[in-house]
Specification:
- The protein is of the alpha+beta class and about 120 residues long.
- It has one domain: Double Stranded RNA Binding Domain (2-Layer Sandwich).
- A three-stranded antiparallel β-sheet has the order 1-2-3, covered by helices on one side.
- The longest helix has about 40 residues.
- It starts with 6 loop residues before the first strand and ends in a 6-residue tail after the last helix.
Amino acid sequence: MDTDDGIEEVFSRSGGPGGQHVNKVSTAVTLRHLASGISVTVSDSRSQGRNRAIARDRLADKLAAAAREKKLVSLAEAARNRRRKAKRSRGTKAVLVEGKRRRGETKKLRAKVVG
């Protein structure tokens, strides 16, 4: 059954304790958020209504956690790009050039002596 807020509800028989009631009545609730594909199944209670409420709460928690994770990933990506695009300071450039100059001198000393 689809609801108007993009959540699909499926009811099934739950197992475990609860006796004949849980064996005869579809009390387990599975909610799936269609946009994200996140799914939650609850069969904690003998009551379908209570299981629906619990499932909605758990689905809301999962969606919030997914949104937080997505935000953290985008912030980390932005920080990574900022660091990648940052210009080197004059001092850092000087150190790099000095290292290259020394390396070049070392290589020149390896050259064969002609004569």
